[in-house]
Write a structure and sequence with these properties.
The chain is mostly helical. The protein has one domain (about 1-265). It has helices at about 15-25, 30-40, 55-70, 75-90, 95-110, 110-130, 135-145, 150-165, 185-200, 210, 225-235; strands at about 130, 165-170, 175-180, 180-185, 205, 220, 235-245, 245-250. It has a three-stranded antiparallel beta sheet with strand order 1-3-2. A three-stranded antiparallel beta sheet has the order 5-8-7. Helix 4 packs antiparallel against helix 5.
Length: about 270
């Protein structure tokens, strides 16, 4: 799976940019209209005055498009359900918290590098209550290679976490503590986040406990849910029971053609 070994997400991505992208799609805009609207949104914020094809602004727009429009086909059903969550507000969560959960899951599924940085950040937060950027970068380089591009991308992802409010600055430079934590108790949203997490993994299965307690989901406090409840909440998850306490959750590979709805995204 090439997504799992690529960095891909090399720019800081603000939550409001993702929200705007999803809202444009929900409003029925086609790809050209979304592109124009994002150019307008970012023209005074990134690469101001620049129009180069390889500019940071165009790189960010490419990332936003890949998450919500040109989504990898195996993630399209997850994307469609994510849009449905954003448009209905039927969860017990506040709309902003639903937004954080859905956009986090989508970025993680499309760009597993985001999940890798989150995993290292979440582990450090659990171990010592804080996460130093230098330590996160070192651990991510061990996974992706000793390259400056890896460190730079990890820095920008950490900056994104700060923008989203899931990390916050401490008094020490480059050291962060946990920010907003979102409690998730809606079984369908839990199943959706689990599915997103599985897409970020090299193999598409993991023990239930590893998924619910994954440090990659450090901004969320997820209510424990039995494996049967999880699978009942999503037709795209399957359960393999090894023993009494060893439930393996996996992606159910649907053989039918993925439907790339909404229709204006064709």
């Amino acid at each position: 799976m090439t997504r799992q070994i690529q960095i891909g997400i090399s720019q800081r991505v603000r939550l409001e940019w993702l929200e705007q992208t999803a809202n444009l799609i929900l409003a029925g805009n086609d790809k050209a209209a979304v592109e124009d609207a994002l150019q307008e949104l970012l023209k005074d914020k990134v690469s101001v005055g620049g129009h180069a094809k390889g500019s940071n602004r165009n790189k960010i727009i490419s990332i936003l498009r890949k998450i919500w429009m040109t989504t990898p086909k195996e993630i399209v059903p997850l994307r469609n359900d994510g849009l449905a969550f954003l448009s209905t507000h039927h969860s017990s969560l506040a709309p902003h918290h639903v937004s954080v959960a859905i956009h986090w899951g989508m970025v993680m599924a499309v760009y597993p590098f985001w999940s890798s940085v989150a995993t290292q950040t979440g582990r450090l937060l659990r171990l010592q209550g804080s996460a130093a950027a230098a330590h996160v970068q070192r651990r991510v380089r061990e996974q992706y290679g000793e390259r400056e591009t890896v460190s730079r991308a990890a820095r920008r992802v950490l900056r994104s976490y700060l923008d989203w409010g899931v990390l916050q600055e401490t008094g020490a430079k480059g050291v962060y503590s946990a920010g907003t934590t979102v409690a998730v108790d809606d079984s369908r949203l839990i199943a959706w986040l689990v599915e997103a997490s599985l897409h970020a993994r090299a193999n598409d299965s993991a023990p239930l406990k590893d998924l619910i307690d994954s440090p990659s989901l450090f901004p969320f406090r997820i209510k424990p849910i039995p494996a049967e409840g999880l699978v009942a909440a999503s037709s795209r998850l399957d359960l393999l029971r090894h023993g009494l306490d060893d439930d393996l959750i996996m992606l159910r590979h649907v053989k039918s053609k993925y439907v790339d709805s909404p229709s204006h995204l064709h």
